[in-house]
Specification:
With 531 residues, this protein is α+β, with helices and mostly antiparallel strands. It is built from 16 helices and 23 strands. The strands form 8 sheets. Strands 1-2-4-3 form a 4-stranded antiparallel sheet, with no helix packed on it. Strands 22-9-23 form a 3-stranded antiparallel sheet, covered by helices on one side. A 3-stranded antiparallel sheet has the order 10-12-11.
């Protein structure tokens, strides 16, 4: 970054010089966004050197916050709120999301200049497109739990979980920024260690709007609730978001921040005749600050077949249930555990020829598993209990040709992604307390797989995956998280109907209703469903 006094115009310029023989696509995109947002920006290309010329700005909101004793008035932050929303609306209208909204990236104009009270947004290094340039359609949803972009303190929960960035993420980060400027601290500050990102995200999900905004005027709580309940591709109602802060905006002479952009949005709002409060239906809140765990059962459409379930099964009674099922021609298709008791699903549609199982005090007993692999048995179901024990079921008659498994203290997405590249697919998952066990197999019959991982039941993500042709093939949950593997089979079934059900107790009252519709349990687990 170079600064010099312009000899003719008597103004200071800041030059960000990119030394490259040609303009890169990334530079072109970002410079065009900067120019669209900031009118005084100029781009000059001269042979082999590219210049991006921008105004020299003043202190950041972080600097101002520090200079004010690390506390800002709610009136000042309300002005910051409405102008920031206006700025983000302009950026979003160009098809981009910022990706790193925080106090350090909002700057005021230079002190003593006409723009000293004007707010600017800088640093588009993490900007990404939310809209396809070719079609103007929203980019497609995805989740990559191994990818995090942003600043941990202010990042949206969706950014923590590796979901594709969209407009809601900038607004959620803005909500955290505003509350920080008033309170001086956010509840998730102070976490350290390799799992810091996990702990911060968990805390964000567990902190309700009431708790987070308890020292802030009501508009900040309402703003937080609105933006954290937005859908992935939802178009924000910027005018309504700005209107939340009307009661906190003082007369022009006493405003510490200019709100020119917000006033323009307000003028548009004033021309609207609809009642914004009445036109929208209230949304179900997703972060209540009250964690809950439930049974999550998945049902697939099948031809009529015999299926049997057992639940609240003690260790000592496992053998008799399994033996009786085998006598009736049934094999275990999935297992789960809650409160150190087991649940078994047995049916006649597995295609297995024989089956063995082990109940062990070790979560996935390596020696026993390897011994069964030598006999051409493959893992077909696993579950763990909170006391650390596990139930492993291995079968003959599977299409698998090779298996690998991993036990991890956190969900092992990086390992899964590595194995995908080697031709493996997830075929079983289980948990014991907060430990994850994931089994992957070659020749599993899938053409593609994706993961949905969340600190609550990921309803939106699952529905988007269903719409793209994926179906849940494995599920598991801990007291903190729920994970779902969704797959596209190489051979699609005639009926692709799939339903999920969440219940506080084992769904014995619902299973028979599903059977009557030829829907059979395909996966079941007990884990986190609400925050």
């Amino acid at each position: 970054m170079h600064t010099r006094l312009h000899s003719n115009l008597n103004i200071e310029e800041a030059k960000d010089v990119v030394m490259a023989p040609r303009l890169s696509g990334r530079f072109i995109s970002l410079s065009m966004v900067v120019m669209a947002y900031h009118q005084s920006t100029t781009r000059v290309a001269r042979e082999t050197t590219t210049f991006l010329v921008m105004d020299m700005l003043g202190p950041s909101l972080w600097d101002v916050w520090n200079s004010m004793g690390q506390a800002m008035s709610s009136h000042m932050v309300a002005c910051i709120a409405v102008e920031s929303i206006s700025i983000l609306e302009k950026l979003h209208s160009k098809g981009f999301v910022h990706g790193d909204v925080k106090p350090e990236n909002f700057l005021l104009g230079q002190p003593g200049s006409p723009d000293e009270k004007k707010l600017f947004l800088i640093d588009l290094g993490l900007a990404s497109k939310w809209k396809k340039a070719s079609s103007s359609q929203h980019v497609e949803y995805d989740q990559r739990p191994d990818i995090f972009r942003g600043t941990i303190r202010y990042a949206s929960v969706h950014a923590h979980l590796g979901r594709t960035g969209s407009r809601r993420d900038d607004l959620e980060s803005l909500a955290y920024t505003l509350i920080f400027l008033i309170r001086g601290r956010l509840p998730w500050q102070g976490f350290q260690g390799d799992n810091k990102i996990f702990l911060v995200c968990k805390k964000k999900m567990a902190t309700s709007a009431d708790v987070l905004s308890c020292f802030c005027p009501p508009p900040f709580k309402h703003f937080l609730e609105m933006v954290t309940n937005m859908k992935f591709d939802e178009e924000p109602n910027y005018a309504k978001l700005i209107s939340l802060f009307d009661s906190l905006i003082e007369v022009p002479a006493s405003r510490p921040i200019r709100i020119d952009g917000a006033l323009k949005v307000g003028q548009k709002r004033g021309r609207m005749v609809v009642n914004l409060e009445e036109e929208e239906q209230p949304k179900k809140k997703v972060r209540l600050g009250s964690p809950a765990t439930q049974w999550i059962s998945v049902y697939n459409a099948r031809r009529p077949m015999k299926q049997r379930y057992h639940y609240n099964v003690a260790d000592s009674r496992l053998h008799q249930h399994i033996e009786k099922g085998n006598e009736d021609g049934l094999y275990i298709s999935c297992v789960a555990s809650s409160a150190n008791f087991w649940a078994l699903i047995m049916d006649a549609g597995t295609g297995f020829g024989s089956q063995v199982y082990e109940l062990s005090q070790i979560f996935l007993h390596k020696d026993w598993i390897m011994e069964q692999w030598e006999k051409n048995f493959y893992i077909t179901a696993i579950a763990g209990a909170t006391n650390g024990s596990s139930l492993v079921v291995m079968s003959k008659g599977t299409p698998y040709t090779q298996q690998s498994y991993k036990v991890s203290e956190s969900f092992p997405y990086k390992w899964i992604n590595k194995k995908w590249k080697e031709g493996f697919h997830v075929t079983s998952m289980g948990t014991a307390g907060n430990r994850w066990g994931v089994v992957m197999s070659r020749n599993a019959g899938y053409s593609d797989q994706v993961v949905e991982l969340d600190f609550l039941y990921p309803s939106e993500g699952l529905h988007r995956r269903w719409e793209s042709g994926y179906r849940i093939t494995s599920s598991a949950g801990t007291p903190d998280q729920a994970a779902f593997i969704l797959s596209i089979p190489k051979r699609k079934p005639l009926d692709e109907t799939q339903e999920t059900l969440r219940t506080s107790a084992f769904p014995s009252n619902h299973v028979k209703e599903k059977w009557a519709k030829n829907l059979y349990i395909a996966s079941i687990c007990y884990g986190r469903t609400a925050c």
